[in-house]
Specification:
pyruvate synthase activity; Pyruvate-ferredoxin Oxidoreductase, domain 3; globular; 6 helices; Pyruvate synthase subunit PorC; alpha/beta; pyruvate; 21% strand
Length: 191
């Protein structure tokens, strides 16, 4: 019987941080004792072009190296992509669609026609308020942890400290931790 991996597919546009979020999540998962892989898939390699990134996280070694066709969670970093049917492709109704948006859950449902669980978080707005830049990845990871608990929050905070303290001031580190926590606290889910 094949091993079950927790699989996440990220959708965004090149330059918005989907690849970085995926890689960051994998590193935090590994540092918390799990196995994890992360890889991107680009169409036209230019800033603004739609792209995907993928995570597999497990308690056992991961041997599968293909794209993720039936994810447990789809994370959408750019809500202008919601009308694209590829967003919910392979996402069963007992799984989660998590979207960075100021739109309501009902609007997301109408745009995507997805009948399963939907989570929405204004990640870009939170990032602007906390970090001062429209980089929603850290906030999206916080929302993802709230929805799935796939990686411990403390592991992600430690990863933020370790990764950012080398390049940025303590105020930038703290701003990213606040964005992470706000994503966790402010995500809203459908019933």
């Amino acid at each position: 019987m094949p091993e079950k991996y927790f699989e996440i597919r990220w959708h965004g546009r090149a330059g918005q941080g989907a690849k970085s979020a995926s890689q960051f999540l994998t590193e935090a998962a590994e540092e918390s004792g799990k196995y994890s892989t992360s890889f991107p898939e680009y169409g036209a390699e230019r800033t603004g072009a739609p792209m995907k990134a993928f995570n597999r996280i497990a308690d056992v070694p991961i041997r599968l190296r293909s794209d993720i066709e039936n994810p447990d969670v789809v994370c959408v970093i750019d809500d202008t992509l919601l009308k694209n049917p590829e967003i919910t492709s392979g996402l069963s109704e007992d799984k989660l669609l998590l979207v960075n948006t100021t739109r309501s859950i009902e609007e997301v449902r109408k745009l995507t026609k997805f009948k399963g669980k939907i989570g929405v978080v204004p990640a870009t707005e939170i990032a602007l308020e906390e970090i001062g830049r429209p980089i929603p990845n850290t906030t999206m990871i916080g929302a993802l942890i709230r929805a799935t608990d796939v990686v411990p929050m403390d592991a992600v905070k430690q990863k933020i400290r370790a990764a950012f303290a080398r390049k940025f001031s303590e105020s930038v580190v703290q701003a990213n931790i606040r964005a992470l926590e706000r994503g966790y606290q402010e995500v809203k889910f459908s019933e």
